Amino acid sequence: MTNVYRPADRPLSPHLQSWGWTVTMASSITHRATGIALYGGTLLLLLWVWSLALGEEAFTFVAGIMGSPFGVVVFAGYAFAIVQHMFGGWKHFQWDLGYGLDYELAKKTAWAIYAASAVITFGLLIAGLNAKGA
Amino acid sequence: MAHKGTSTFVMQRASAVVLTPLILWFVASVVIHAGDSYADARAWLASPVTKMLFGALITVGAFHMRIGMHEVLADYFHGSLNRIFNTANWVFVVAVVAATWLALFSIGT
Q1: C-alpha–C-alpha distance, residues A104 and A29, integer Å
Q2: Using 50, 70 and 90 to split pLDDT, how confident is the model at A107?
Q3: pLDDT of A53-72, one tens digit each?
Q4: First to last CA, chain A
Q5: How many CB atoms lie within 10 A of CB A83?
Q6: pTM for this entry
Q7: How far is CA B15 from the centre of its chain?
Q8: Do B34 and A128 touch (CB under 8 A)?
């Protein structure tokens, strides 16, 4: 058996740039992107829990970063990633059970997840800043 | 991971189900404790219930994100590069879980 590499024989998946943009596609990409972001984001949770373990000086330093404008932006992004990924997971669960696969409904679901995630992130941001007493 | 597709599929969803209440608890906790002093935040984390829930969140989360990253790696990397990244994936999640429990134990009660 000789294996001759002939790429022309196999169909190629269309390149990302040649797809027409759809909200379901964006939702799928967002799910993966937020998953990857949360993967890296665990390091922030680790930083926070270790700052508490190490003592007041470390905690004050980390809390200072978290309370800065940069920290607030990171918090909002983190909250959005969590909420979006959780809703995306529920959507996949629903699909796995055989519901909500109709395309028109799937488009509405994708938009609803973006909208709900944005609203909840905003709510969490306000509630967090309020609790912080800013 | 050959011949384990179905169990991986099931485990990813099972861990997602466990993660949902843990995430809801954690997000609510972070918002409530946003302005805590060191003493308050430490007292909160030092409680056994908080430790168990936070430890569970990171442990189950690590389990879930290892599978997710494995799927991402399978899409973009092949051959030895794939094996290297998957090893790194394992090392990362195990390190995160170990470092979390170490911090939780060192906080005491």
Answers
A1: 19
A2: very high
A3: 999 999 999 999 988 999 99
A4: 72
A5: 22
A6: 0.89
A7: 10
A8: yes
- The residue of chain A nearest to residue B14, with distances taken between CA atoms, is A93
Partner-chain contact B31 A86, CB within 8 Å:
no
Cβ–Cβ gap B16/A89 under 8 Å? yes
**B24 alpha-carbon distance from chain centroid:** 14
Q: Does A127 touch chain B (CB under 8 A)?
A: yes
In the block, tokens 């992004």 appear at: A77
Q: Considering CB atoms only, which of B17, B35, B96 is closest to A46?
A: B96
Note whether B66 and B11 are within 8 A (CB): no
Instruction: Quote ipTM for the complex.
Output: 0.93
> From the centroid of its chain, how far is CA A133?
27
What stretches of chain B show up as alpha helix (H) in DSSP? Answer: 5-32, 38-46, 48-76, 79-107
Task: Show which of residues 61-120 on chain A sit within 8 Å of chain B, judged by CB atoms.
Answer: 63, 79, 82-83, 86, 89-90, 92-93, 96
